[in-house]
Amino acid sequence: MNFDLTEEQRMWQKVVHNFVAAEVKPKAQEVDETSTFNWQATRKMGPLGLLGLSIPEKYGGAAMDAISAAIAIEELGWGCGSTGLALAAHNGLGTAPLIEFGSETLKERWLPLLASGRGKLGALALTESGAGSDLQGGVRTKAEKVGNEWVLNGSKMWCTNASIAEYIITLARTNPAGSSRSLSMILVPTNTPGLTIHPAEKKMGLKGSPTHALSYEEVRVPLENLIGEPHRGLHQTLSTLDGGRISIGALAVGLAQAAYEAALDYARQRQTFGKALAEHQAIQFMLADAATEIESARLLVYRAAWLKQQGRPYSKEAAMAKLFASETGERVARNAIQIHGGMGYSSQMPVERIYRDARLMTIGEGTSEINRLVIARQVLLNR
Ligand SMILES: Cc1cc2nc3c(=O)[nH]c(=O)nc-3n(C[C@H](O)[C@H](O)[C@H](O)COP(=O)(O)OP(=O)(O)OC[C@H]3O[C@@H](n4cnc5c(N)ncnc54)[C@H](O)[C@@H]3O)c2cc1C
Fold it and tell me: Would residue 365 show up in a list of annotated catalytic residues for this protein?
């Protein structure tokens, strides 16, 4: 067993870290305060490969291995939760189903544009007011075949990137039977008449990552915009979410790392009772727990990514990584605030923002409860 990153992975980590330190982290507070997406940095991400992490080279992507892709999202999360989430959603949700299941025509049409940074991003709309954890039973948005088009009607909620996307891959009911073979993924360009992207949600954190409700009224797209097989959308979604969970786990590790570093700095310079906070054992224990949990979370994320890269089953491991990393992110950010005392509650301090940003990670792309169900199911099957 070898726990070292390869030389290439280490170089990639350094390149992304330096980019994020220069272009993303310094803007994180402004992005949060003004609820604006950091387009300026995102435009520069195309040439670096960050907009096409898993896109094959023939479509202009970086074709990174799964560990390198996780490293990139981790570094982005370290710099700014909002930018990290937008990029995790773009790579993990917006482009992944197209790469995995899309037709050659769709790939050629969209992937080079998205990978280059000349276009906007990708988005995936699964969730509805009555369908979050329970997509199979809950999705009401329907798509009907009329002539040579799909006609979509319905609504979606909580779609990350919708207003900054070229298209939204939409999970819609194409078979009223209601079984696991009744949903399909359909690519809907955001300029299609009948699609309304509602104003951005007002959220607790991740304010620079726009999230929107959507309405579809007689939205017409060509039949060829179907992604993968008809009625296999649920299966394709679950497979996409396995990969997405590695991404959210990596993002949570990055957020935790940033909170931990801020707490470490503060503990070194702040004095109480005649010595630095870092010399009080209660503070040392919080720092020791944070260091241990971040390291554990990172290893779980990298292991899930490694399995994915080997082409081996990784559903349970991705759920474990996402569950543990997201709960670690929240706990580490919480304790980082504690170490800052009153200053930790001030929006002048990054830990306040990181705590709000980290909170989402236990909810999006499968809540902690749903991930525990995924893990339990596999454990009970002895997998
Ligand atoms: C900032 C943000 C960004 C998002 N981005 C996207 C996106 O890009 N695309 C998209 O499609 N969705 C997105 N979502 C939606 C997100 O994936 C859902 O909110 C999430 O899957 C949970 O679904 P829900 O909100 O309907 O909660 P519900 O399914 O109603 O769950 C409510 C609570 O009940 C628990 N619960 C539900 N079922 C069970 C069960 N069987 N056993 C035990 N507990 C259970 C859940 O864990 C949770 O605690 C986003 C959400 C947010 C907040």
Answer: yes
